[in-house]
Design goal:
The protein contains one helix and 32 strands. It is an all-beta fold.
């Protein structure tokens, strides 16, 4: 690896696992983070920011004759041709595709019949398959070329609420509804510290060297480089969603309000409380995503609110979901949204600033999390987590299914790291580390 970032954790955050040199021989070496753009917590680009922006090449954009996202090419979402990957929750398309499984996410052929080699063995999953190598079903947690699970980190007792890998640290942070915050050594995969929060964690993210933890009526902020720890007040209700955009920190709560802090250059007071955005969501704020000049928030009230980042005004409300909005994702010209109603909707922004649905993918079960990254050939792929414990991996913009990940419980948290790392957390508290790369870590 040739990263030259000024960090003490460098390139060896491999969780103590020796990688097989040829396990990803069928994909070309991964170009790190291209073509992502990143936003710093304050201003200007930061190579390691979690607020990733995808910009599709012309070859990946739908043409006027391509019906993948509708009959015509929608206008760019936000300013320019790229949108922040903070819009990390589902998208939907009008037409169904044979690549989307009709068998509750367990894999399908064009005729709808399940392919055993794309289905995990339920007996192996439970630890008691007697067929061994003779079993026609998968004995693996993943079927996607070039992707491998490199570590399984156990210790949490309930569902993961957030996973964070801050800049300037060789430690991975995880928070759970079991009321604990755990810190893991990225070299050994061992838990080096566990904190009893005395409260249920609702969200956890990292931005630069800062880690933000959502708690009842507060956000806790910790800087891994300076060891500075802050308790940010001004919150009403449990914090379930956190994001950073346009020099501000946003926290969405169970009351439906969104608390906002200004990020400053003052060392003694890096966060100054600004305001609380009230009276818009009528229920818990579940997710955020940022697209250039806009902040998008999803809620249990079945709506997506669109906020102007310059004025902090709610400019519109998107109301097409019939149940809780669980996740948001921005890619190229589109906003993807997922919901417990079993749909992934794809929204396009017109020249007048209004949004319309250009596709809806209907699943047979609820959708819980979305995230996106580039594969080894620098092609955009999207991960969609379903109720039954599977995560389908799709090409964008075609929505062709390329593979699956599996878990014994619903995966509610998906976080992208660098160097091809992906972190998943399920409802049982299990944290898994995956790697999609063609070279050894």
């Amino acid at each position: 690896m040739n990263h030259k970032a000024p960090r003490r954790h460098s390139n060896r955050r491999d969780f103590g696992v020796e990688r097989q040199e040829g396990f990803a021989a069928d994909i070309v070496p991964r170009r790190h983070y291209a073509p992502y753009e990143n936003h710093r917590m304050n201003r200007g680009p930061s190579k390691w920011s979690r607020n990733l922006v995808w910009t599709a090449s012309d070859g990946n954009r739908p043409s006027k004759n391509d019906n993948t996202h509708g009959s015509s090419k929608p206008a760019v979402l936000g300013t320019g041709s790229s949108v922040s990957n903070q819009l990390r929750k589902n998208g939907g398309y009008v037409q169904r595709s044979s690549s989307v499984s009709n068998n509750r996410g367990w894999g399908s052929r064009d005729n709808g019949s399940p392919n055993p080699r794309d289905c995990i063995c339920k007996f192996w999953k439970a630890g008691n398959c007697k067929r061994g190598d003779q079993c026609q079903f998968l004995h693996s947690w993943c079927c996607f070329p070039g992707m491998a699970m490199v570590a399984s980190l156990e210790g949490h007792k309930k569902d993961l609420k957030g996973i964070a890998l801050p800049t300037g640290s060789d430690k991975l942070f995880s928070a759970s509804s079991d009321g604990t915050l755990r810190i893991w050594d990225c070299h050994t995969g061992q838990c080096v510290h566990s904190t009893n929060l005395q409260a249920e964690a609702g969200s956890l993210i990292s931005e630069g060297s800062w880690v933000f933890l959502g708690l009842p009526n507060a956000v806790k902020a910790f800087n891994v480089q300076t060891s500075k720890e802050l308790h940010l007040n001004g919150v009403v209700g449990q914090v379930h969603a956190i994001t950073v955009a346009n020099g501000m920190l946003f926290a969405g709560t169970s009351s439906g309000s969104i608390s906002v802090w200004k990020i400053t250059d003052i060392e003694s007071e890096p966060f100054t409380y600004l305001t609380s955005l009230e009276g818009h969501h009528s229920g818990q704020v579940t997710c955020f995503i940022v697209g250039r000049e806009r902040l998008y928030s999803g809620s249990v009230d079945k709506t997506i609110k669109v906020w102007d980042l310059n004025t902090l005004e709610c400019t519109m409300t998107l109301r097409q979901h019939t149940d809780t909005v669980t996740s948001l994702l921005c890619w190229d010209q589109f906003l993807y949204s997922s919901s417990l109603d079993g749909t992934i909707k794809v929204w396009a922004c017109s020249e007048d600033g209004s949004f319309k649905i250009v596709d809806t993918r209907r699943q047979e079960q609820s959708v819980h999390a979305l995230c996106g990254m580039n594969d080894g050939e620098v092609k955009p792929i999207m991960f969609c987590s379903y109720q039954n414990g599977t995560v389908s991996i799709y090409d964008l913009p075609s929505f062709k299914e390329r593979g699956k990940m599996f878990s014994t419980h619903t995966i509610g948290t998906l976080t992208i790291g660098h160097d091809g790392l992906l972190f998943s957390g399920d409802k049982s508290g299990k944290l898994r580390v995956w790697n999609l790369a063609a070279t050894k870590v």
